[in-house]
Design a protein that fits this description.
Layout: H1 3-16, H2 32-68, H3 72-82, H4 85-91, H5 100-127, H6 129-134, H7 136-141, H8 149-175, H9 180-207, H10 211-235, H11 249-254, H12 265-287, H13 311-318, H14 320-347, H15 353-359, H16 365-398, H17 400-405, H18 411-439, H19 447-455, H20 458-474, H21 479-496, H22 504-508, H23 525-548
Length: 554
Amino acid sequence: MTTGTAHGRHAAAEHLGQPATSARGTSTLAGVGIAAWFILRRNWLRLGLWALVLASMIPIVYDSQQQAFPTQQARDAYAQVANTPAVAAMTGLPYAAGSLGGILVIKIWMTLAVALAFAVLFLVTRNGRADEEAGRTELLRATALGRHAYPTANYLVAAGLCLLTGLLISLLCLSVALPAAGSWIMGASIAGTGLAFIGLAAICGQLASTSRGANSLAVALIGLFYFIRAGADLQAEGMAPSALSWFSPIGWAQNMRAYGEDNWWPLMALAFLGAAGCLVALRIDSSRDLGSGILPERRSAASAGPFTTTALGLALRLQRSSLIGWFIGAAVSGLFFGSVARSMGTLLDPENPFARNFVGTGHSMLDGVLGIFVAFNALLAAAFAIQCLGAARSEEESGRLEQQLAGALSRGWWLGAHLLIAVLGSGLMLLLAGALTGASSQGAGDPGQLAGACLAFWPAVLSMLGLQLLAFGFLPRLTTAITWSVYGLSVMAAMFGGLFSLSQDAIRLTPFGAIARVPAEELSWTPLVVLVLISLVLAAAGMARFNRRDVLGA
C-alpha cells in the first residue's frame, strides 16, 4: 500500500464518521445519506459537466436546424432524406421528421441517450468496483456504514445525474418553444435510458473482479443493445417499430417517441429495469467475498513471460481487452459506413442545406458521404487513443506506478510505452476502418484510397495525445477533463461547425477541421506537418514536466 493511497483511505474513513465499533447497526443501509454526500463531494465536477454538456446540446442543435430548415417545405424535404435505412440504423426511425421537434430527435436523441448511458456506467464503476479494487470499500464498511449503504448511495447519485440531465433537457426544449408534451418526453426518455443502464452497470460490477472488466462488460452491453436497436429499425415496416426493438433498453426509450406519439409507459419499464438491476447487484453483493467477482478469473501462467515483464508488454497486457474491443468497434463501424454509403449518396439532395453543410463541398454527394465517414472513423480512433493513453493516469491514481518505478524502470520508458500503444494503435485503427469502409462500399470507394484518407487524420489524433501529455505533466488531476473537453469541442466544430454558422477559417483552426476529407476534398500536406510539429512540442513539454514532478502530484 502506498503512502498516498493509505492517507486517502484514512481521510475517507475519518470523514465518514465513527469508529468501527459503531458500525454494527441493524440496517445494511445505515449511513446511506452520508455516503451519498461523500460520493457527491468526490464527483460533483464530473457530474455537473456531464449534465451541462449533454443538455446544452439542445439549444445549439435546435438553433442550427432552424437555420438549415427555415420553412416547412425545407423540413418536408429533409423528411424525405431522413427516411432511409442508413438514418434509421444510426439515429432511429424518423417518425416525425417533418417537424422541428422530430428533426431534433433525429439529430441528437441517440447521441444524448448513449452518452448518458456511458456516463452512468463510468460513474457506477468508479464508485463501485474501482473503490472495492483499491481497498476503499473495505475501509468504509469498517466505519458507520452498513454493508449496502455505499453501493446504494452510488446508484442513487447516478440516478440523480440521469434525472437532472433529463430535467435540464426538457426545460431547454421548452425554452425554444417546442411542444410541452414532446419536451417532457424528450428529457424523460433520455433519463430513462440512463436509469436502465445503472442497473446493468451495477450487475456488471458484481460479475467482474476488476474495474476494467466491469467497464468492458458494460460497454459491450451498450454496443449490443445499440446494434439490436439498429437491426430492429432496419426491419421496421414504415414507421411502426419492429418487435425486436423491445429486446433493447435503447429501443424502449426510443419508442417513447418524443414529438410524435409521446408515450410515457416505456419509462416505467426503463425505471423497473434499473431498479431491478440494482437490487440484483445488492443481492449478489450480500453473498460474495469482498474483492471477488462472480465470473471466474482466467487462470494465468505462474510467471510472466520475458515480454510481459517489460514496460510495453505490461501495458499491452493490462489494456488487452480494451484494445480488442476498440478494434472490433472500428471494424464494425467501417463495414457499416461502407454498406450505407452508396444509398445515402443517392438519396441525399445536393440542394438540401442540411446535407450540404453535413457532407461538405465535394464534387458529388457520394464523395461527400465518404468524406464524412472518413472523418467519423478518425474521431473513433482519436477517442481510442485518448482512452489508451489515459491508462497511464489510472496507473498513477491507483498507486501501481510507484511500485513499477521502484525498480530499474525509468519514467520516460514507462510513459513512452503507453504513448507508443496509443500512437501505433490509432494508426492501425485508421487504416483498418478506412480499408473496410472501402471494401464494403460496393464499389463506391477504393479501399486503399479510403485507408489513406483515414490515415491523413493521424496528425489530428497525435495533437490530442500531445495535449493529453501536456496536461498529464502539468495538471495531472485535470488531465481527463481537459483532454475530453478539447476533444468534444473539436468534434463539434469539425463535424457541425457549418450548422453552427462557424466560418470555414474557424473550423480549419481545429485539429479535425484542418484535415481535408478525401475523396470530397484535395489533400493538403501543410496542416498535417503543422499538427505533427505541434504534437511533438506539446508531448516533449509534458514528458519533461512528468520527469520532474512528484508522482500523484497536483
